[in-house]
Amino acid sequence: MGKAFAKVVYWLDPDEHGVRPKGEAAPQKAPCELLAPGREGRVLPEEWEGFSLCARQVSWVSGSGRENLVLWVSDLPRKTRPPDYLITDSAFAPPALPKEKEARAMAQDPAYLVRRPAAWEAVQDSSAAAWMRTLGLPGRFEGLFTWHCANHANFLEPKFFVTENNRPAPYSIARTRRVCSACMEMFGVVGGDWPVRYVVPCPGAVLFAQMVSGRYYRVSRPEMDEEPVPC
Fold first, then answer.
1. Which of 59-63, 104-108, 151-155, 226-230 has the lowest mean pLDDT?
2. Is residue 220 included in any domain, yes or no?
3. Domain with 82 in it
4. Is residue 231 part of a domain?
5. Cα separation of 132 and 142, whole Å?
6. Average of per-residue pLDDT across 103-120
7. What is the pLDDT of residues 167-195, one digit of tens each?
8. Residue 50 to residues 40, 44, 137, 188: CA-CA distances in angstroms?
9. How wide is the angle at C-alpha 149 spanned by C-alphas 145 and 150, nearest 5°?
10. Bridge-partner residues for 6, per DSSP?
11. Is the pLDDT of residue 124 over 50?
12. What integer is the mean pLDDT of 222-227?
């Protein structure tokens, strides 16, 4: 049996962490590259729009309050303070998942419509087709996009959740094929105020970070959670 998955996520002051050390490779296609086992690195504020595969998908960072911070991801926590978020394996199984009609309604939820970035909705046919080819996804993008929107909506205003420590713990409402930009939930950009959430990796995280398709990963805020940070 392999080593259990664990990643820590920090949002750091660019004045102290805004220079990439020599030898640290920047993620190129998508920020989820930093979730690969053994990978440590950062995304600088000016780099979010430059991802060759996921620039539109990560537009959620803009206006999130974190657009001027440095994202730093590693296998081990820093010695100075606990991480903002901890991502670990889990055996979570969703008690219920929405049907397509429910997903369409969730994609029109006012909480989602108010907070969605304009760039997220600005889907270009050529870019969508290239995205699907790169990730090996069959079918048409239009059918998937409703699920992408509904999934993010569930982390903004949960309709599908479990309760942990008397608080809602929202979870991904679809399997990997129908999920997009799961890193936004894992990095706390979408739904980051919930103490716990369960997130299925998107196809990019499976391809670039070797995360397990269909598995729910537990994302928690250590200062609000009872589980200790692994060392």
1. 226-230
2. yes
3. 6-224
4. no
5. 11
6. 95
7. 999 999 999 999 999 999 999 999 999 99
8. 19, 11, 23, 20
9. 115
10. 88
11. yes
12. 66
Contact call for residues 208 and 52 (beta carbons, < 8 A): no
Closest by CA position to 42, among listed 60, 62, 16: 16
pLDDT at 230: 44
- Assigned domain for 77 exists: yes
pTM of the complete model beyond 0.90: yes
- The per-residue pLDDT for 126 is 83
Note the maximum CA span of the chain.
50
**Main-chain dihedrals φ then ψ at residue 205, nearest 5 degrees:** -70, -30
CB 179 within 8 A of CB 201: yes
What phi and psi, each to the nearest 5 degrees, are found at residue 166? 65, 20
Helix spans in the chain (H): 14-17, 100-106, 110-115, 118-121, 125-135, 141-156, 183-186, 203-209
Q: Which two tokens stand for residue 121?
A: 């909705």
Residue at 14 is within a domain:
yes
Tokens of 76: 């081990």
- Number of domains forming the structure of the chain: 1
Rounded CA separation 74/102 (Å): 36
Identify the CA nearest to 25 among candidates 16, 17, 34: 34
Cα distances from 15 to residues 68, 113, 166, in angstroms, run 10, 34, 38
Q: Which structure tokens are listed for 146? A: 């409703």
